[in-house]
Automatic annotation (TrEMBL):
Residues 13-65, 66-120 form the HTH myb-type domain. It comes from the Eukaryota. SMART domains: SANT. CDD domains: SANT (cd00167). It is found in: Nucleus. Residues 13-65, 66-116 form the Myb-like domain. Its main location: nucleus. GO terms for cellular component: nucleus. GO terms for molecular function: DNA binding. This is Uncharacterized protein. Pfam families: Myb_DNA-binding.
Length: 261
DNA sequence: AATCAGACCAACCGCTATGCC
DNA sequence: TGGCATAGCGGTTGGTCTGAT
């Protein structure tokens, strides 16, 4: 983008420059970081000879100047991966970017908002739910209020037809006492959100929060494991190969172990 | 050639997380 | 333990580009 005028400065410091970075500024920042490294963004602009905020310098470096940034079109493979990771992780752009070597969170966010959101949003409408559907595993032994009776099970994201079929997951019966969580699609935001068809107790909510936290760990571990044992050199390729399938069974076992202790 | 609308994307802002004293 | 400084993240803005009319 060229010649972007300065925005109104709410903090109104006339000595701080805003707007598009010039080639000279880029050169100054790059040269300074190469020589002294990154030690403190807030105190860097002055000695680097830049009339910018540290925040602005950091953003410019992270999104444009730092080495190994891939400038250029997003490939079809990257696009597919973004879509799948967004369905899996939500709008965690930094986390998604970490799985696409050379791509920045800002770039992926922009790409999603301008190109993929509408397309995928429409697709989501046709196959709701996309996000993980937490259900309650009935306690077949006694049907009591024992914590195991409220143990949530997880429906794998419907990334591909045939993956994570609802039939594979034990689901609650209509007269079960526990709450089922589902996902509903919001037209305005193009996002999926949680809903509960019946009342949710604080305990159930707490359990769900714990489960979601554990699920995040599981996702990270699955990814690392896939990458480390695949022999591949590019994490993006590993993701494509493995389809980032999220193993509901192992996740349940993981939680069972935890509660059992 | 001029105009317009939508797409694109760099950069800003506000908020939260983290680290340090 | 609380307060402050810094880093990082995600949402939003608005100027430029581009294709259609």
């Amino acid at each position: 983008m060229v010649g972007r005028p300065l925005r109104p400065n709410k903090s109104s410091d006339p000595t701080v420059k805003k707007g598009t970075w010039s080639a000279e500024e880029d050169q100054k920042l790059t040269a300074y970081i190469r020589r002294y490294g990154i030690w403190n963004w807030a105190h860097m602009p002055n000695p680097a000879g830049l009339a910018r905020t540290g925040k602005s310098c950091r953003l410019r470096w992270m999104n444009y100047l730092r080495p190994n940034i891939r400038h250029g079109n997003i490939t079809k493979e990257e696009e597919d991966l973004i879509i799948k990771l967004q369905q899996l992780l939500g709008n965690k752009w930094a986390a998604i970017a970490a799985r696409l070597p050379g791509r920045t969170d800002n770039e992926i966010k922009n790409y999603w908002n301008t190109r993929l959101k509408k397309r995928v949003g429409y697709k989501n409408k046709l196959q709701i739910p996309i996000a993980c559907d937490i259900k309650v595993k009935p306690n077949h032994n006694n049907g009591s209020s024992h914590p195991y009776a409220c143990l949530p099970t997880i429906d794998t994201p419907k990334l591909e037809a045939g993956i994570g079929s609802q039939n594979e997951i034990p689901t609650m019966s209509e007269n079960s006492f526990c709450t089922s969580y589902g996902v509903q699609y919001d037209d305005k935001t193009s996002e999926n959100s949680w809903y509960s068809p019946c009342s949710v107790t604080e305990e159930e909510e707490r359990l769900r929060e714990q489960f979601l936290a554990l699920r995040d760990i599981e996702i990270e571990e699955n990814f690392c494991g896939m990458y480390m044992h695949s022999g591949a050199t590019d994490p993006a390729l590993v993701c494509m190969q493995q389809e980032l399938v999220y193993h509901s069974g192992s996740c349940q076992d993981f939680i069972m172990d935890l509660w059992g202790k």
